[in-house]
Amino acid sequence: MAEQFDSSTEPETAPTNPDQRGRARRFLSQRSATRTPVALSTAVAKTPKSPRPGRSTAHPMRSFLTVTAVAGLVATVAIPAFAAGTGTPAEAVTLQQVAAENAQSLVVASEATPEALARDSYSATTPEEIQSKKDEEAAKAAAAARIAAAAASTASNFSATYSGAIALSIASSGSVVRPLTSFNSFGTPYAGHKGTDYMADRGTPIYAIADGVVVESAESSSGWGVYVKIAHNINGTTVTSLYAHMSYGTRRVTVGQSVTAGQLIGQVGDTGRAFGTHLHLEIYVSGSWVNPESWLQANVS
């Protein structure tokens, strides 16, 4: 720092020697030509950075404020969490009350009854299933109407085809009677035929061969047409009799009904797989089929 290009660094007395004065003038002349830029450059290069105002005191204060803010945040989060973890009995009761209020939907569900879920007495659960059930019942009703109409038509012709008296029962001479009072012929028309066909006019009355209970009674079937089946106990032996191809609407007995020997159960027809009016009779003894006519001849007294 010996060389400060400032007016204060010039010598206080001028040199007295001529040579010295000449060198001084040359030096001052050269110095005057370069003083300003050198001084500015040196001033910029050499001027120390002045410290920021208040820097020496700002750091401690800011650190203190930061620590204070962090401590406040910790207290804000920690205190509610601690309080939630160490609830009082009164707070536990409040939680139970809230749970009880939310559980009111269970009370509504418990009031549901099967009747509330019933859909027109159908067990189906989808619209398609319900419609299928309705279509099925409609088909059954239509079939029943057709059968009833056919029965009415057949019944109206009984008087024209059968002129004999139709008694509700016939006196039995023993425990077994013949199902028909009269017939034209009988036989087994084809192999595998498990019954005997008794040829008779349409409307001829058919009677139960013995006391028993009706186990089947149908207005229509694919093979037997209108038929009745009766279970008997004849002298300690289980016997079943079946009467097929009756006329529509002539059945007089229903399932579960008790009958006596010689009781009217229906009338001859040609329903089902039949060619001409006749009674198809089947007899089973202890579950095995027997020839009906041979059995009748052996048991009718």
From TrEMBL:
One Pfam match: Peptidase_M23
Entry annotated with the keyword Protease: no
Polar residues compositional bias, start-end: 1-19
Segments for region (Disordered): 1-60
Sequence intervals crossing the membrane: 64-83
Domain (M23ase beta-sheet core) ranges: 192-292
The UniProt record lists the keyword rRNA-binding: no
Keyword vocabulary terms for this entry: Membrane, Transmembrane, Transmembrane helix
Protein origin, superkingdom: Bacteria
UniProt protein name: Peptidoglycan DD-metalloendopeptidase family protein
